[in-house]
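Good day; I would like, with your permission, to put a structural problem before you. The record follows directly beneath this note:
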Amino acid sequence: MSEAPPSITIEAGKETVEELADAAEAQFKRLVDIFNPKNNKMNWLLLALPITLYFNFQHSLQMAFVFSMIAIAPLAFLMGKATEEIALRTGEAVGGLLNATFGNAVEMIIAGMALYAASQNPDVVDTMVTVTQASLIGSILGNLLLVLGLAMLYGGLKHSEQTFSNQSGQMNGALLVLAVVALIVPSAFHYNGGTSDAVMKLSYATALVLLFIYGCSLLFQLKTHVNEFSSGGHGGHEEPEMSIKDAWVLLILATILVGWMAHILVHSLETTVEKWHLPELFIGVILVPFFGNAAEHFTAVIVAGKDKMDLSIAIAIGSSVQIALFVAPVMVLWGWVLGVPLPLEFGLLETVAAFGSVLITISILADGKTNWLEGVMSLACFAILGMAFFFA
């Protein structure tokens, strides 16, 4: 009689181990299925990942630069897919915040690594600072004009007119105006006779203020006024396609792989600029944000087609707000820690482009409605600015 309990305990232990093993195997199969190109044609671009590693190993840095950018696109799409699944359970305000955060992880990694490279090699400081500043401005432009423009165009072709929460648009618009003012003031201060040291001190102080404002905006959206940022039922109910655990595992795995590709991209950036004679501003403002914002590109457009403009706008504009109020200040302070001066003083073209994109976006979203023509207008503005940076 005394031997029965141990036997039962051992059998129960075996069943538990087998159940855990089966569950782990099932989860692995589900993840493999998500990466399968047969289920999503975008996954064919994942072939760029091993190609990037090959060229990086062979020290063919220009080709590694190209394929690392290509590899980031499908990985960012998978990040967007995971965050969309999470948004179905958390609500659109939190879902948009998650998508913007993980979408901007690419910009943070690229900018952070660029500044670190500058701190290790004084010869590349100018290039890395220029590309870092340009990528921050480019991310704002890309999200406001390209991502939102594509979303309004695609959604407008499927639905004649789409509506969204005015409260969300107005608050994000005000935050964008504040961010642009913060970018303009250091330049105006410098032109008014401020020294470089004074500009840096102003940039550090401004960065701290912007981080405080960003924290307040999160508290406002997610705690004190959360009901005002709900979708109001637009777009109907959609059932999740994967478990919450699978969504988080996919999100974390894709983010790690994106970081790996971003590391190779930064490592090969200087050589690509020298060998191919590409303008640093064009790489920073157009190329790097275009591939880095792939998560926002795909997700914002897809959900707009489903008549969920609240989530689409939360992703596109929320990402721009986060770049201006969080990523840019963090990079300024990170540069301070590394001993690399990264002021919030941008060139005239970048500043005018940022101000113009914010002005156009606020004007388009003022009435709480969007259509395909407004999307075309945003895309046209992005094309004009892209050509300006290419010929700069």
Remarks:
- The chain has one domain: 36-391.
- The first strand starts at residue 162 and ends at 163.
- Residues 232-236 have pLDDT under 50 and may be disordered.
